Amino acid sequence: MSEPRRSPERERLLAAVERVSPVAIAHAEASERQRTLAPAVVDALHSSGLFAMAAPRALGGAESDPLTQIEVFEAMARADTSAGWSLMISAGISALAGAYLPDEGVRRVFAGPFPTFAGLQVPSGVARRVAGGYVVEGRWAFGSGVRHARWVLTGAVLAPEGGPPPQGPPEMISVAVPREQVVIEDTWDVAGLRGSGSDHYRIEGVFVPEALTCPFPAAPRRRGGALYDIPLVALLAPCHAGFALGVARRALDEIAAAAPLRIKAWPRLPLGSHAAFHMDLGRAEAKLAAARAYTLDALGQMWDRARAGEPLAIEHWAAIRLVQTYTTDVAAEVVSFAYRAGGGSALYAASPLQRCFRDVHAATQHIGATDDAYEFAGRARLGTAELHPLLAPRPAAPGGV
């Protein structure tokens, strides 16, 4: 029997977001000033259990399905963008660590209170084989949440051990490193997502035991259900799409609330009385609703195939990649409309509209929302697309788990 389509913990998780939201909103400016998520918000996310929402149930997680994840990330980003981004990063990486690390490594990483995570899922470092594990060196960008993380899960290329050079892509691994063994660089002085603390970080000759590593990007599932049979890019797709939807929804909330109060300099009437604004607001609502429906449909089909044990075909991959980029693009359009409609008052640091504008445009720069998704979809439609290694299916779980 396949897993249920929706997580039984959906309502609990959404209720947890409601409890955390007032804390995140109250500390939003502090997160911006400190350029990392305010400690009070980190504590609230911890106590709510939201950091564990995507991790396997065997490790204390909720193992929430992709559709539930979209809704939870959307709701948290709607309340506060920095909290929403930080939640989706830590929760997404906890799913990777929890599902794919060996048992011995998991016992260490998940000992005690549920851990927080950071780490760029791009192999920017090098791992050299030694007795019992690897020595890892490298520098990675965009370590969102690294200042409040307990563990960093990141990628590295295996250094050649002699002999002829390997054919095809190099062998890669993920490594889990305690935050104390990671050097954080104070680089996150940016326009958008300032409160996410996405600093660069370095690992300088750290020994990582074999038990704290797994293959990258196609590690076999070691625990949990069908969710973790989904390949890496698809597994993380709900994170970025949910975040973008939440930011756009917050922007429309803000401009709808401001419209009756904002008097336009010419002709001295409230913005909310202008027919042109009504039309633009209606179009924005339709765009966002359509992008949301597309997101739920595309990732819902992905989840249905995973529950049925069916592989993802090229057309599914095209939709998974498209939905992340397209939804982010639509969110940016919607937020830009709301920001411009907000007029001069939207310029001020106290305005949520300027923060939504900056943060959604920061999200458009993320690797999960690149324009080549459109090219891939076009080639898939013409039958000329090929699967990238990051889209490769996972091998069967050890022992038929």
Automatic annotation (TrEMBL):
One GO term describing the cellular component: cytoplasm
InterPro entries xrefs: Acyl-CoA_dehydrogenase, Acyl-CoA_DH_C, Acyl-CoA_Oxase/DH_mid-dom_sf, AcylCo_DH-like_C, AcylCoA_DH/ox_N, AcylCoA_DH/ox_N_sf, AcylCoA_DH/oxidase_NM_dom_sf
Keywords assigned by UniProt, alphabetized: Oxidoreductase
Pfam families (UniProt xref): Acyl-CoA_dh_2, Acyl-CoA_dh_N
GO terms, molecular function: acyl-CoA dehydrogenase activity; flavin adenine dinucleotide binding
Domain named Acyl-CoA dehydrogenase C-terminal: residues: 239-369
Source species, domain of life: Bacteria
Gene3D superfamilies reported for this sequence: Acyl-CoA dehydrogenase/oxidase, N-terminal domain (1.10.540.10), Butyryl-CoA Dehydrogenase, subunit A, domain 2 (2.40.110.10), Butyryl-CoA Dehydrogenase, subunit A, domain 3 (1.20.140.10)
GO biological process: fatty acid beta-oxidation using acyl-CoA dehydrogenase
Residue ranges annotated for the Acyl-CoA dehydrogenase/oxidase N-terminal domain, each copy included: 9-94
Residue runs in coiled coils: none
Family, as annotated: Belongs to the HpaH/HsaA monooxygenase family.
The name this protein goes by in its record: Hydroxylase
Lineage summary: Bacteria, Pseudomonadati, Myxococcota, Polyangia, Polyangiales
